[in-house]
Design brief:
The complex is a heterodimer of chains A (344) and B (551). Chain A is an all-alpha fold and 344 residues long. Chain A folds into 2 domains: 17-177, no CATH class; 180-332, no CATH class. Chain A contains 17 helices and no strands. Chain B is of the alpha/beta class. Among the domains of chain B are: 22-295, NADH-ubiquinone oxidoreductase 51kDa subunit (Rossmann fold, 3-Layer(aba) Sandwich); 474-550, no CATH class. Chain B has helices spanning 129-138, 151-154, 179-186, 188-202, 216-229, 248-256, 276-287, 318-324, 382-386, 393-401, 405-410, 421-425, 432-492, 495-513, 526-544, 546-550; strands at residues 37-41, 50-52, 59-60, 67-69, 83-92, 100-108, 165-169, 207-212, 234-239, 271-275, 294-300, 308-313, 332-337, 344-345, 359-364. In chain B, β11 and β12 (308-313) form a beta hairpin. Classes of the chains: A mainly alpha (344), B alpha/beta (551). Chains A and B meet through α1 of A and β13, β14, α9, α12 and α13 of B.
Chain lengths: 344, 551
Amino acid sequence: MEFRSNTSPHITGTGSVPAVMREVLYALIPGAAVFCWFFGWGVLVNLALAAGTSVAAEAAMLRLRGRPVATTLRDNSALLTGVLLALCLPPLVPWWIPVIGALFAIVVAKQFYGGLGYNPFNPAMVGYVVLLISFPFELTLWPVPNAMAGNGPGLLDTLRMNLAGILPDGTAIDALTMATPMDTIKTGLGLNQTLSEIMSGPAFGAYSGTGWEWINLLFLLGGLWLMWRNIIQWQIPAAMLVSLFVFALLFYLSNPDVYSSPVFHLLSGATMLGAFFIATDPVSACTTTRGRLLYGAGIGFFVYIIRTWGGYPDGVAFAVLLMNMAAPTIDYYTQPRVFGHRRD
Amino acid sequence: MPDQKAHLHTCPGGLVLPGNKSVSTALPIVGPVIPARLTLPLQQHIGGPSNLLVSPGESVKKGQPLSIASEYISAPVHAPTSGTVVDIGNYPVPHPSGMQAQCVILETDGRDERFQPHHGTEHYSQLEPYNLRGRIREAGIVGLGGAGFPTPVKLNPGPGREIDLLIINGIECEPYITCDDMLMREAADEIIGGLQIIRHALQVRECIIALEDNKPEAITAIENAIETSDNQHIRVSAIPAVYPSGGERQLIRILTGLEVPTQGLPSDIGIICHNVATIAAVYRAIVEHEPLISRIVTITGAGVVQPRNIRALIGTPISELVEQCDGYTEGVERLIMGGPMMGFALPSDHLPVIKTTNCLIAATRDEMPPPRPAIACIRCGECARACPASLLPQQLYWHAKNSDFDKAQDYKLFDCIECGCCAYVCPSHIPLVQYYRYAKTEIWALEQEREKSERARRRHDFRLKRLEQIKQERAQRLQHKKDALKKTVRKDEDPRKAAIQAALERVHAKKISSGDVAKNVDNLTNEQSKMIDEVDRRRSKKQDSPRETRH
């Protein structure tokens, strides 16, 4: 009898890239839902626009590059990039903001480098940073959290605002938006206010900004689920959070009137989203165990530096991109000792 | 209970794989059945081939050597039963490449007559170690765990190497395989007997029998056998079932915490490892005077009706073993020799069982689906987590794929044991091991090429040196001649003669400097003319061999 032959190993595990990406998307659901709860329908509009643009751009680029379109799209990576970008954007931005961001992320940051697996920088963060630098005003269009303002604009109003730029009757854009907590702190400190004065304002909750603490906690929850599912490893998030905590603690202890508490830093802005979903992007991160610890710690360090002394209120995107640059070098110098070799 | 107090060490990487073991352990070992025809390849081991001792038409008896080891690392092949040699020639053998090799075809007569009267001995402790090694060598015993390295070589660690630990490897970490498990359950006393022989041959006291903690029956059987044999210094160590902890280096690390140096052997750190089936074969060879003519083979997988373990004569066609398992099931699609992780696919079942055939898996499509299309590496690092050698498989893949072999070697390509863990976990379904095999073969080829050109370069350098030497010798000889002539002139004290001589010498020197050699052979001494003859001879030789001069 004759048999089909292949080379070993003849059995394989069940893991696959589409499944990995899918699980990451699932893990984002609780955080995204709470984000939506606090900041309104605009989150969903952004998600739809960014994800749709990402997938369409990926399909177009694959076609142009002569790569299989349908099978590659099924890896869900473009969808995830779009979703991550949308979760960084203020919910009241005009429609072209997520579209431009997603286009840049997929076309330039991903496909120009060769597509999935070849991009040295996190595409979603490249897209976000391009928007942040090019359209600084639009990127401040954060609405007043619903928890404070009662119910925000409904779905139809949001659609009209984001897609057509038509504000609901009798409102001004200033009435709908407010500075984010970290922006408020930055401005307040510039006016020589102490932190306790600033944080007694209505934008702050128990530990950090109203709403933001919950959003961060739920992204943390999703991240822990990913760890439990063995989709991500603990090193990058743990190192990033510990390093951010330690730097924040050192400065907080030196002068609590000027430097925010470490807990504030952990539960503010994009900390948890960054630690579990963005810094852990395998393509652009470090791959060795020790390298991942250094990489995560580096991100935590830069996040603190940029938040405290930089020109932007949050620094996760910049910190991740800076460490993306360092990743190959870190990987090179943190190779594990090979079995049977002496430690050199 | 096995020695739970003994501290186990951890090994990097590894996988917990679905075992699929119980399907083939339900029935006891059967056999051997004598088939009508046996195909016996002359090379079933690592090392030099064995040299043929028989010719077609010759009738042979059970246990008669058909070939003899050609060198130190080699092993003979024996007739598994009595019969007639009907052919000697190239036949397909089980090999990853599907190649053909020289085989003895034996038509059996069913009488199963012994070649020599039984002269096995239970008093092996009265034999010298070298004597035991000789008997094991004559019995053609090789490592039965899969590699097929000649056992007597491993019993001779060489001068200056003290062996202080013997490890008996009962780990079957690959899924499906159960032949060692069944052997330990059914013939634990043979294993303990073989262990004592090997211990005597190696003059080593401490011994660990290692098996996986998911083999309770085997553990009990081995412990009972140790108890009845009243042995000291044998420890049974049950280790967690993680693939590939049965690899020699991995097992040593788990049991002792020591790592065998990358280019070294276990004996470098005072340890020798033998597989349980190998030492059972040693027992049979020494005590029962039976060379390695049969082995236990696991026939399993959803592709056979009744998976089980069979003691098979070496050379038995695989198709006959499958018949003993009531044949194939409908969905059978693949046939693997060895385990599903490191075994290789056989193109057909018209191939013989050889000494290293531990397992045959007839698999259906569900069990071993065709490889899924590979997509880009996302650098998730799962492969690095699974790698038992602590390599960075994704980097190796990258460099192998780009044929950047220097870089691949920087990342220690040759420490890869091709266990397949990386490819198993890869979410992009990249056939990583294939890339490493490709890179290794390319590097070997390049090295051979380099060695060749290095040899040519050395030869060329040597030739230049030799030519230079000849030139110098010639100049020296002429100088001697000149000096001798000068002396004779001074003796004569004749100014006219001296003037002529001086003129001659000037001409001579000019000729030398212009590369021409003096041809005035008028008044030469015997010695001088001899020298000149020699020079002429060399010169003509040089011209006769133009190939040499062309370099």
